[in-house]
Amino acid sequence: MRLIRTPFPSIPRPLRQLGERLWHSRALTQAWDAAATPYRYVAGHLRRFMPKGLFTRALLIIVIPMVILQGVLAFLFMEKHYDLVTRRLAQAVIREVATIISVIETYPQDADFRSITDIAANDLGLSIAVLPLEPLPPPRPKPFFDFVDQVLSNEIRTQISRPFWIDTVGRSSYVEIRIQLKEHVLRVIARRSQTYASNSHIFIVWMVTTSLVLLVIALIFLRNQIKPIEQLANAAESFGKGRPIDDFRPRGALEVRRAAQAFIEMRRRIERQIEQRTTMLAGVSHDLRTILTRFRLQLALFGDSEETAALKSDVDDMNHMLEDYLAFARGDGDEQARPADLSLMFEDLEAEAEIAGAEVSSALIGETTVVVKPIAFKRCLTNLVTNAARYAGTVRIEGRNAERWLTITVEDDGPGIPPEERENVFRPFYRLDAARSREAGGSGLGLAIARDIARAHGGDILLDDSPLGGLRAKVRLPS
């Protein structure tokens, strides 16, 4: 292969050869990309219209090859069958007509040709008439797709070799042939079914019927195979949302059973870990609360003074911090999901914001009853609302339950959070120095607890700019 010269002839030859190889490989890559562009374009559009479900895709995998295969077989078989049978039938009819012509010309003593007419009608199924000699009618326009007309015309030219006129269009059920003899004109009327393969549709009927039967059987078996996968997906989704899983056990094919059994074992390990963590945290909480209670009792014995007031404030802060730490470590615990009334929950949120000194308004659109872990979900929303009320004067709460999604937004007119810090504030114990100081209260776990609860319900929390000028926190989870 001839290498194209590079514009740097002063470069040493090994390096120049290496560069030329790289240039050629890049050119080949570009050529391949250019050739693959139409394929990517078509594949992208097909992917947009292709079904997304496993059942529908599996059904297409079965149906499309079946339709293509049967279409090809039907076309090839029908073409050969129709062609061959039509030619054989046309040859037989024209052979019978040639025999009648031979009888008419051999035995001219039958003046009215009644005998040959009866024989043709009774034994051959042909209606013939021997007419006086006259010019044949002008030829009719030949049908473009009428194979019968072509075959009959060719057979008449081959077997009879006389002037003829043929009509395969005028009367759809019959074919009329006129042949000019020496002294007469022979008119033959035959049923159209005598000249072509009229029973080819039987093959189509049987093919379509058997295909439908096989397709129904395939649908039944395919549905039985897809159903365990759907049950596994529903169980995993319910477990991810913290909802109970009822009557789930491995079913279906071996691979699906293995996946289901692995999911069950994973769920057991997670539940056992949560149970152990909850038990440990309950013990730790009891022990620490006992110590804090002793501190309060000892401070109460000292009486009221500036020193004891400061110590009591520290003990209260420690108690609040302990509650926050335990809530973050505990998560949603073993609380079960159940229907909860959002309207009542919004009333409590308004009260919390008003206690914090903010002006609050709320609106709720759609169904007010949702399936959540009420205590945990209320804590999630309470953290967002109190966090907004602590740094803003106006708080607006909006809820929308539609299209299988529950969306709750909490907006304020406070200082907001810079875009580059909006993911960091969800980290445990993370604080913003400018807007959120330790003197403002809190342990730095409010947003972390809120997002943890939202994700435990299968959703998430996103932060954005609010039309009020501050921060907008959006809780979105499947309803």
UniProtKB/TrEMBL annotation:
EC number: 2.7.13.3
Transmembrane segments: 54-78, 201-222
PROSITE patterns registered for this protein in UniProt: HAMP, HIS_KIN
Domain (Histidine kinase): residue spans on this chain: 283-479
Domain named HAMP: residues: 223-275
Location within or outside the cell: Cell inner membrane
Any one GO MF annotation of this record: ATP binding
Keywords from the named record: ATP-binding, Cell inner membrane, Cell membrane, Kinase, Membrane, Nucleotide-binding, Phosphoprotein, Transferase, Transmembrane, Transmembrane helix, Two-component regulatory system
Catalytic activity reported: ATP + protein L-histidine = ADP + protein N-phospho-L-histidine
CDD domains (alphabetical): HAMP (cd06225), HisKA (cd00082)
Membrane topology, from the record: Multi-pass membrane protein
Gene Ontology CC: plasma membrane
Record-given protein name: histidine kinase
